[in-house]
Records
---
Amino acid sequence: MTSPMMKIVAPLLVAVLSLCAATAHAASDRRPAPPGAPEDAPPEYTRFTAAELETGFMALAFGSDLRVGGKPKGVRKFVEPARIAVLDQGSLSRGDRYKAAVREFARVIPHLDARLTDKDDDANVTVRLIDEKNFVGAMEQAFGKQVARDFVAKTDPQCMTSLKSRADGTILRADVFIIVDQGDDVFLDCAYHETLHAFGLSNHADSNPFTTLNQTRTVGYLSVYDRAMLTILYDPRMEPGFSAGEATAVLPAILKDLGSIVR
C-alpha cells in the first residue's frame, strides 16, 4: 500500500539507440580505453573544465528525451541501497560480466550504495539480459502492450530503462532491459549506458563528447566523465528533489572536491 507521502510518479522510459558513429574531437588529456572495453572503444577523456562538468550534469540529471507520465521535477537518486537482481535470460550468458560492471560502479562512486542480490523480491533494480527477439515481449509484459509498442515505434531501441520515483526525487525502482546477442560492443555499451540511467542520470546529451549518454557514441566502459557525473549526483550535498537552481547553487563546492579531473 502506498501512503500519500509515497506517491509514485508514472514510469520514465529511457532508451539508448545503439548508433555506431563515433564523435571525433581534438582534445588533450586523453588516454586509451581501459582494459575490458571493446576493441574499438573511443579514448577516455580524463580532465575537464568546471563548465564542462556543470553543463553535463545539468543536462543529464534533469529531464529525459522520452517520457511516459509526469515530467520529473528535480534531481532523482537512490536514498536507500540499490539492490540489483540480474536475470540472465538470453542465449548468451552475460550475467557475470554485467555483475562485474555493477561492482565497478559500487567501488568507484562515493556514497553510491549498490549491492547485488539473488532474491528478486528483495530487489529494487531488476536487470533483464535477453535476446533481441524477446525484447519487445519483455517490455510488453512489464509495461503493457500499448506503452511498449509506442516506445519501440518511436525509438527502435536495443536497451531500455524505466524508473519509478517519489515526488521528492527518491528513486523507488528501476527496470533495465539489455539485449545480449548483438555482439560485445552493443552489450557493453548498453550495460554501462543503462546503469547510468538506472542510478538517476535519466537524460541524454548528444552534443557532449565525453559521456556514454551521448547516443552518437559507442563507448562500453565507465568513463572518468561519467564517474564524475555520478559522484556529483550522489554527493550528500546534492539532495533528491533539488530544482535546477538548487543544484546549481551546490555544484561549485562539489566540483572543487573532485580534484585533479577539473582543469
---
Amino acid sequence: MTKELRIENLRVAIGGKEILRGVNLTIRQGEIHALMGPNGSGKSTLSYAIMGHPNYEVLDGSVTLDGRDILTMEPDERAKQGLFLAFQYPTAIPGVTVANFLRHAVTNVRNPERKEGEDLIPMRDFRKELRQQMDELGMDHDFARRYLNEGFSGGEKKRAEILQLAMLRPAFAILDETDSGLDIDAVRIVSEGVNRIAAKNSTGVLVITHYERILTYIKPQFVHILFGGQIVENGGPELVKQLEKEGYDWVRERYPEAAQTEEALQLAAKQQQVQGGVQPVF
C-alpha cells in the first residue's frame, strides 16, 4: 500500500523569525518531487522542520505520514517511521566508522522496538548487504572502515549519504542541496545512485535545490517553487526549464507580496551573519 507524506499549512520560525509561512505539499511513495527556490527562501528550513531539528520552531500546521502526526515524534522516531534526510552539510563523527554507524542505524530502523544493548543485525548479513550496496555505488570497500565524514571530500560525504539511503531503505527521502559543492561527474554518480534506490524501493523523493543540473539526472514528475516562505508555483518539468531560461524574475513579478517577504528574509540572514559571523541555514 502506498504511503503518503502530507504537509499542511506549515509555519516555522528560527530564533523568533518566521521563515515558512504556510507550506502545503503532498508526496506519495514512488513519486519524485523537486523543490526549487533562491537561497534563503526556506528550503532547508522545511527539511529540518520535517526531521525535527530542535532549532526550528513549528508555529502552526501539520506533517503526517500515513495519517500519523510526526511533529510530536523525536527525530529518531521519525526515521523509524520511514523518513530520511541527506544533509546539505553532513557532520563528521570522529571515532565512529561508516560500517559501525550503519550497522546500528539499520538495526534500529528495521527493528524499531529494539532496546539499547540488544543484538544488532548479524554481522555476516550486514557485511554482505553493505558490500553489495557499495559495489552498486562504485565505492571501495575500505570506505566502510573510515570515520564517518572525517576528512571526506565533498563528493565522498554525499556518496556516504546515498550509501545510508541505500541501506536504510526509507519510505521517503529528502535530499537537501545534495548537489552543493559537487562537480558534474560527482552529481551524475550521486544521482544515478538515488535513481536506482528510489526505483528499487519505491521511495518517495523530495529533491531540494536551486540549481537545475541535478534535475538533468534525477527527473522529477512534480516541481514546486518555494518563494518568500510559501510554495507559489506547482507544476511539472516545464517549471525547471522556465527557471533555467528566465531565472526567478517572473516569480517576483507574479507574486509581489512573496517577493517583499523574500527580500526581508535575505536582509535578516545578512544581519545575522554580520552579528554572529555564521550564515543561518534557511
